Fold this protein.
Amino acid sequence: MPLRSNKSVKAPLRAPVNTKKPVNYATPALDKGLDVIELLARQSGGLTKSQLARQLNRTVSEIFRMLLCLERRGYIAQIDEERYSLTLKLFKLVQEHAPTERLIVEALPVMNRLAHETLQSCHMGVLEGGRVVIIAQMNAPTNLGFYVKLGSQVNIMEAASGYVILAHQTPPQRERTLAEWMKESGKKPPRDLDIHLERIRKAGYEKRASYQVKGIVNISFPVFDDRGSALGALTVPYIQHSEAPTKSNEVIEALRRAADEICASIGGRSQLKGANS
């Protein structure tokens, strides 16, 4: 017969179970206003009140109140008697954001020298969700050339700068960026994305034919923040013509020096071999 102990056995302590659900504070007015802004951001030609109401599944009266508020605050404007479009206020706010403002201030003189040295245009891009936003741009000092419009947005999977930033983000940052991109695009990343990004990391930069414009070769280097993660990318859309005899290998070296200089000026910590840290 098995022996029994007189001591009582205590059940193991368990952490109290939190049965409360996360509080979801409803802000319908803010949601409606942001819905209008996000929809207009994807429409270069603007939309009417009826079109906005239909696409957002709202009543015209709801949309009208939102439009009055957004127009009064300067976020949208009427481009004709019926259609509304975004103004540049959001872009200006981004430029006034401290990290972005400092990056632009420090980058522009370097970019100006780079454009004169290479006789090529250049631009600085940063990530915003699943897109690359061009926050600074410098034209080439020639009669001929190619440039990307300031403030334009490009899908990260269609931009050399997008891949360069992705390649030099930390794994958690990259995961968040890709999740945002998939949410916005409704697509899955390319199957060879990891291989592509590893190749960029080993080289330290990207050089490949433009995803969007024939005859352009995009050369792009990362610009790092103080934690060694890519804050943005400095890119030259390289084009060969009679007024710009600079060879691509010369542009690569000039672009490398320029990216390093910008990185150092903002207190960034470069991860590239041979770069200043």
User: Anything to note?
Assistant: The radius of gyration is 25 Å. The first helix runs from residue 28 to 41.
